[in-house]
Design a protein that fits this description.
The chain is of the alpha+beta class. It has helices at residues 22-30, 32-35, 119-140, and strands at residues 2-4, 11-18, 42-45, 52-57, 62-72, 76-83, 93-102, 105-113. The chain contains three helices and eight strands, in the order E-E-H-H-E-E-E-E-E-E-H. The mean pLDDT is 91.
Length: 148
């Protein structure tokens, strides 16, 4: 996964996931037994438009939650994003993920925002970029091939 330069209110990252079809890669976002292989250890999910998710890290006593506004297997996945330590502090962020077939794999792009221009929001934005790169690499490592 790499960052694509963008405006300060959003972030863009993408990666090429070799040996994943778009549908297979999408499944790693919606099936609990696959999600826990690369992201949170505890997953509650209703992967349909209007459905909700809650990803929990018990050892950190924290969770991420939101709802799905677009579900198109192997093409697009859009959801809101709120941490339990942020309720009422920030408007929920949105994550919009697109999957595109490439030779021997899938290109996945992530757009995440909006972020304000405040110093704390911009610091959070940097951390989110680092997180997407880290967890994207973990996801890519589940299949032989390299994340470019």
């Amino acid at each position: 996964m790499i960052e694509i330069p963008s405006s300060s209110d959003i972030l863009l990252v993408y990666g090429e996931f070799m040996n994943f079809t778009p549908e297979e890669l999408f499944d790693y976002w919606v099936k609990p037994d696959l999600i826990i292989q690369w992201w949170p250890p505890v997953v509650e999910i209703n992967a349909e438009v209007g459905g909700a998710y809650r990803f929990t890290w018990p050892e950190l006593q924290t969770f991420l939650q939101g709802t799905y506004s677009h579900v198109d297997r192997g093409r697009r996945w859009r959801f809101s994003w709120t941490w339990n330590h942020e309720p009422g502090v920030y408007e929920p962020l949105w994550v919009d993920i697109h999957f595109m077939p490439i030779d021997h794999g899938t290109r996945m792009s992530i757009m995440h925002g909006p972020f304000s221009n405040s110093e704390s929001d911009q610091q959070a934005r940097k951390g989110v970029i680092e997180g997407w790169i880290h967890f994207g690499m973990r996801l890519a490592g589940l299949r032989p091939g390299e994340d470019l």
